[in-house]
Amino acid sequence: MRKGYVATLVGLMVLIGLMAPALVSAQSAAKIGFFNMEEILATSDMGKAANQEFKKIYEKSKTNISAREQELQRLKDELEKQRPILKEQALRDKELAYQKKFRDYQDMVKDANDELNTRRQDMVNKYVPDILKIVKAIGEAEKFTMIVDLSAVPVAFSSTEFNMTKRIIDEFNKTYSKKK
User: Fold this and answer.
1) Mean pLDDT of the 107-130 span
2) Residue 160 φ/ψ region, left for φ over 0, alpha for ψ in the -120 to 50 degree band, beta for the rest
3) Bridge partners, residue 35, by sequence
4) Does residue 142 sit in helix, strand or coil?
5) What is the pLDDT of residues 41-91, one digit of tens each?
6) Shortest CA distance to 107 belongs to which of 133, 134, 75, 72?
7) The whole model's pTM is what?
8) Pick from 175, 155, 174, 173: nearest CA to 33
9) Distance CA 96, CA 107 (A)
10) 167 vs 180: CA distance, rounded Å
């Protein structure tokens, strides 16, 4: 039994020794490209337009939230001023009213954040497939072995020589301008 194991191990080592030069030459022929999807989504023409839309939604929400914050501050100040003179039941009623308004405020902030996140996710779902088609077309045309999204996969080092982000943005901008 032991002889069979040793023979298999020796055979495997010989096979690896024979294949090593082929593996090394295959590795040196590998062509790996990189891009950053987050940068594409942020700086492409579509991304800039979406960011403007997000900014409008944010400003509208910010105005409503600021008004609600001022109202809450006014109610809190009023409650603190009246605390010494209010009867226990009246104080409790005012505190409950304040807490309800505070919960409504928190819900408003959460809804505003959810709306922005939903809009962003819709944008991603709509445009990422188009961007990936561009990446695939470039990869096939230029015979890349692999193209990696730097925003999705942590990479310790990547050469700027094969960073395709700018090129993908240019191609995507052409595609996006045709769809408008």
Assistant:
1) 93
2) alpha
3) 149
4) coil
5) 999 999 999 999 999 988 989 999 999 999 999 999 998 999 888 899 988
6) 72
7) 0.67
8) 155
9) 16
10) 20
